[in-house]
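Researcher: We are triaging several targets before committing to wet-lab work. For this one, the compound of interest is flavin mononucleotide. I'm pasting the protein sequence and the ligand SMILES. What I need is the predicted three-dimensional arrangement of the protein with the ligand bound, expressed as structure tokens, so it can go straight into our comparison scripts without reformatting.
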Amino acid sequence: MKHLLLVHHSQTGSTAALAQAVLDGARDEAISGVELRVASPLSADAEDLRWADAVILGTPENFGYMSGALKYFFDRIYYPCLDHTQGLPYALVIKAGNDGSGALTSVRRIVTGLRWREVQAPVIVSGEVNAAGLAACRELGMAIAAGLEAGLF
Ligand SMILES: Cc1cc2nc3c(=O)[nH]c(=O)nc-3n(C[C@H](O)[C@H](O)[C@H](O)COP(=O)(O)O)c2cc1C
């Protein structure tokens, strides 16, 4: 069994809706060899990351950055994980009012330090959550879970 961790934060529900679509994709009936764990960045810790064979992060863009909750997660796991999660496959979902580039840059800076591997293009949903955004998130979840199951990462 491979392990997929989803860590996401949402204040008003839109990132949570995207995260649910990621989960729906990862739970596609064609995929059977992947166990999922969902955690808030306020409580997820280094043990969750050591458990994970891949991680998907979800965050709104706040003040041109990732959410404070996701930053808090990185603040706590960075040094405990630095020597243990290098090469960890990860993917990112961002919900923003604008283009989400501030959140993207902020996450990439930290995961570059951690030496995680971005194995799928980030999904950035700008404006209202719509069918296309939900479909992209569902596809992302399915791609990561299927890739894990197939041993691609
Ligand atoms: C305090 C705060 C700061 C925000 N800053 C930005 C920002 O810098 N850029 C942006 O595109 N959207 C910004 N937004 C809009 C949120 O990214 C957007 O409303 C998002 O959908 C919220 O996600 P959530 O419903 O999962 O909490 C901000 C929202 C809040 C509450």
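Researcher: Any quick observations?
Model: The chain has a mean pLDDT of 98.
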